Amino acid sequence: MSPAALSVDNFSLMRGQLLLCHQWQMRLQAGQCVHLAGANGCGKTSFFQAVTGLLQPEQGDVYWHGQALAKAGNAVRRQWHYCTHDNALKEALSVTENALLAARLCRVSVTDNFLEEALQEMQLVFLADTPVLQLSQGQKRRASLLRLKLVPRPVWLLDEPFNALDEAGRHQLAHWMNRHCEKGGSVLFTSHFAWPGHLKVNHQVVFGKPGGEA
């Protein structure tokens, strides 16, 4: 069997004096969409931060196609999307300006037609030139998710991506997640609410639970 696209082995993580997980393991294969489950405050966000290099685990390592990231450096992590609770938008800039800025920071060239397609799919065309400061929370969430389509990355780490989205936004995000996995990409996401029924989730992993899978 080929190595998982993304995995953790013998993974232990602390938050202050609290042990979040101990010698835990998790596998995310190419083409899979996996739900990372767990109660509020159990450490799922801290786990995402550890995977992306923002926190240091007490033990264990993160592996990318079998290679330990402790040796590979941060260059590999730049191949992933990590979408947090924070929308990471500059509020003085418009929706379009934010989208193009995200692409430029990732050294990706975006055509006008491709940007228009993304704006249409997220129902943001009529807000394309509107400063983010004037948007609702749901509209801001849609604007922040544009980077998933505009900037190709093999792994999506999505922390509560459906928050603040209405039914149409949730439907479109689920479609993007499905399409990403169909093309060989991988998605690890958290959600405390029911996701759209057409989202193709391969399985659920409970954070910190021995054996991982629910």
Automatic annotation (TrEMBL):
MF-aspect GO terms: ATP binding
PROSITE patterns: ABC_TRANSPORTER_2
Residue stretches making up the ABC transporter domain: 6-214
Keywords attached to this entry: ATP-binding, Cell membrane, Cytochrome c-type biogenesis, Membrane, Nucleotide-binding, Translocase, Transport
Domain of life: Bacteria
Protein name: Heme ABC exporter ATP-binding protein CcmA
Provenance organism: Advenella mandrilli
Lineage: Bacteria, Pseudomonadati, Pseudomonadota, Betaproteobacteria, Burkholderiales
Gene designation: ccmA
